[in-house]
Amino acid sequence: MSAPSLLAAARAQALRDLRLVWRRRGDAAQPLLFALMVVALFPLALGADPQQLARIAPGVLWVAVLLASLLTLDTLYRSDVEDGSLEQMLLAPVPLAWLLAVRVGVHWFTASLPLVVVTPLLAELLFLPADLLPVLMASLLLGTPLLSLMGAVVAALTVGIRRSGMLLALLALPLFLPVLVFGAGSVMAAAQGLPWIGALLLLGAGLALALVLAPLAAAAAIRIALN
Fold it and tell me: Helix H segments across 85-164?
């Protein structure tokens, strides 16, 4: 029997992950609800001054997205560890890094992409100027996959530890902070009339590097943790 092709393995892995997400769609909606709650609390705490809210809107939106991303990292491999699927992935006739790359893609599609889609609505709640919205969307489209890829590596490092939520957050936050700085900083620079394309280029470079290295690093960490 011939080994499955990479595309066939990716399709099977993606369909399996999407079915699991659909069965736990209540959990899948938590990041979106969490981000909405965080954004809604700022006008209540700071008042409804449009100028003040517009000034802090890029940082607030990016912090909400970052915290929502942290919320889902603990579930990235947890079900696979519990039912033994992770060991089967190690024995699969295709590279483990390839299967993990598909897993991260599904995670971004189901957890982070909905946040990006509702960002215009959240930006309206914070009175973000309309001319800054394209910069914000571009930074999120570059930054959120980078958060998922880096989070997959950190989650792989703690895959053998039970109740690793707090440790996972402590390990992931230092890696996430540069993404937050460049993502929110590009929007703030555009608001002040300063050059902002450089920050997006750095996010794009980080994403290109992480697309190659993060699945390999996550696969190596999982092999070490399970051996």
Answer: 85-91, 96-107, 113-125, 133-157
